[in-house]
Amino acid sequence: MASSRMLQPASIDIDAAARYYQLTLYLKSAEEIQIGRLGRFLFQAGFYIYTGSAKKGISSRVARHLRKEKKLRWHIDYLLERAEVVDVAVFGDDKSECELASLALSRPTAEVPAKGFGASDCRCESHLVYLGNELDC
Predict the structure, then answer these.
(1) How far apart are CA 67 and CA 8, in angstroms?
(2) What is the pTM of this model?
(3) Residues 66-96: tens digit of each pLDDT
(4) Residue 87, number of CB atoms within 10 A of its CB
(5) N or C terminus of the chain: which is more exposed, having fewer CB within 10 Å?
(6) Could you tell me if residue 6 is inside a domain?
(7) Res. 59 pLDDT band, cuts 50 70 90
(8) pLDDT for the residue 13
(9) Is residue 7 domain-resident?
(10) Can you tell me the distance from the alpha carbon of 93 to that of 83, in angstroms, rounded to the nearest whole number?
(11) Number of structural domains, the chain?
(12) Is residue 14 within 8 Å of 90, Cβ to Cβ?
């Protein structure tokens, strides 16, 4: 089960050289959510990994994701209205955003909950992966 504490921007140590990040999210109960113009999708309860990038200002990008009050701009913003961020990992240039998303999708319980989520500027199936109710670390 997810931690009951919300991550705070100040509690995360982010390497300024990092360019990519993965948010581990927890959604308490299944919900149908409209994801901007991408469409309406049923998101099952459980854990998700979202892979994103920030060429500059990764600390600001992650802090924005952790804030509850924000203008809805990216696909992830719509899901974050309902899901809780339980972990943040950051990465340098050794793997691309798409490679990281592909690695998340290769996990044993991984499924794509919404085709095209976070992947409107690439050919990936999705940058959001559903993992089920247990993290398979």
Answers:
(1) 8
(2) 0.87
(3) 998 999 999 999 999 999 999 999 898 888 9
(4) 16
(5) C
(6) no
(7) confident
(8) 58
(9) no
(10) 28
(11) 1
(12) yes
